[in-house]
Amino acid sequence: MEKPIGIFDSGMGGLTVLAELRRTLPDEDFIYLGDTARVPYGSRSARTVERYSLEVADYLMQQGVKMLVIACNTATAHAYKSLRQKLPVPVVGVIEPGVAALLRATKNRRVGIIGTRSTIRSGSYEQALKAHDPELSVFSKACPLFVPLIEEGWMDKKITALVIEEYLSEMVREEIDSIVLGCTHYPLLRPAIQKIYPDLQLIDSSVEVARSVARELLERKLQHIEKRERGKLRILLTDVTDQLRQLEQLFLGMTVEHLEEVQIDPHA
Ligand code: DGL
Questions:
Q1: Cβ contacts of 159 within 8 Å, gap of 6 or more
Q2: pLDDT (tens digit per residue) in 106-128
Q3: What is the pTM of this model?
Q4: Residue of 41, 95, 114, 186 best suited for mutating to test ligand 1, as the one with most atoms within 8 Å of CB
Q5: From 56, 137, 162, 256, which residue has the greatest number of CB atoms within 10 Å?
Q6: What is the span of the domain harbouring residue 27?
């Protein structure tokens, strides 16, 4: 089907998921919407995150997308269920694919979840994990300082290593063997975390999300038929600032010629 796939995030971090999707599905067209005017979602209440997510999803539906990917963990935690109920197109979130990968990875059934405050407070990862395996020992930790450190580009700094230890040492002492990087930004910290905890298996949900999207497209016969080198990409943002150019490089690994600024009208 020759329509684009819609993907949204609270800001630019979801470009990590977009990058993975484009690697896995080079023929597809994508419209990415980053709600940069209202980022971060990670410190907000469940009802606000749900409202923002529904507004952003509505906007993408008006653009004629054939599927919706929620790249943001916080938005998945609070809006996945309502979006699945409300939208006439398939919806893929980041939590279920991450959970599936975590369950495959763990040997001792002691696992860790890290994410924003709002994601951790929702208990969504824990619920999804326990639904599959009630005996699993799950340790969760909100890591609110990771997002600003990553956006500052401080992945290799000493201060970041200290923050990683501060957040993770307790669950590592509990002998977890795997941890899900439950936030769009955290895959960028993978080398720094792995350096401190070389034995820990780090689960990056973006790889799993790309696999789920590919499967869903196939099952519902929604794939782009015409073969080509690279599908089209549009990046829409609710606020465009200079700093975003830097983040685009960081998260997507390339700059897009034109960032489109859009206004989301909640009463549309
Ligand atoms: N995109 C968010 C997430 O994956 C992180 C940034 C934010 O707090 O908005 O949870």
A1: 149
A2: 999 999 999 999 999 999 999 99
A3: 0.95
A4: 41
A5: 56
A6: 5-93+207-261
